[in-house]
Amino acid sequence: MTTPALHTREIGEIGPGTRSVVFLHGLFGQGRNFTAAAKALAPGLASVLVDLPNHGHSPWIGEAGYLAVADAVAPVLAGLRDRTGAAPHLVGHSMGGKVAMVLALRRPELVDRLVVVDIAPAVSEGAGEFEHLLDSLARLDLAAVQRRSDADDALRADIPDDRVRGFLLQNLRPRSGADADAAGGGFGWQADLALLRRSLPEIGGFPDLTGLPPFDRPVLWLAGARSRYVGPEHDATMRALFPRTTLVTVKNAGHWLHADQPEAFASALRVFLRAG
Description:
By secondary structure, this protein is α/β, with parallel strands linked by helices. The chain contains 12 helices and 9 strands.
C-alpha cells in the first residue's frame, strides 16, 4: 500500500547544489515547531519542515510504529536528494529523533549528517506523562468548544502548565461546513489521538534493528541538562549504532531544548551542519 505524501513546508530556495536539512518533530508536534531554527540556518542551508504521519496536516496512516513512520518519511528525503544532488542532513526531536535514527540506519544513503535531539535508541521514560496528556485531550467535549479559549479553560485543571497546554492546543483545528455538521462541533484534533494513545508502548520503545550496520556518518546528540531522556546508561547503545557521535548537553534546558534554549540550539546546528 502506498502512503499518501506528507505535508511539508520549505524555508529557503531548493535546487541543484542546495545544501538542505529536514526537521522531524516529536509527539503532538508539527513541522512548524522548527520554523525559528530553520530560519536561523539560512542562507547557508535550506530546510524542509515535515508534519509526521498522524500529526499536523499530514495523513493518518493507521500505524505509529517507527518502521512504518520512517518508510513514510523516506520519500521526502529521497525527493530532496534528487532535487539538490546530495543527501540532506536530518534533525529529529524526541519521537522524531527515533524516526530519524531508524531512517539513518535503514536508509543511510538518504542521510548526510544526523542530529538527534534529547532522545536515545532505547525505551524512553515518561510514558505515564503522555498517557495523562492524551487522556486529557480525549476527554475534552469538542461539541462544547466554540473558540480555542474554551478548550484552554476546560483543560486547565488537568494540564496546569500554560506552555504545555498551549503546545497541545496547536493540534486543535476549526472545522467548517459539512465537516462541522457531521462531527457535531466546530473543532477537531489534527493528531490521531486514539492511535497515538494505544501506540504509546511502541512509541516509547525502539525497534530491534539487529543485523543492520552502524551509521558511519557524523552524528550530533543534543541533550537537555534537565531532561531524563538521555543518560549515561544510553551511551554504549548509541555509540554502537552511531560510532561517530558527539554528545552536547545544553544548559538550562529540558526535553524541549529547542524551545527552552533556541539560540543555543540554532548555534549548535549551525556549527555541526555547516561543517559537513
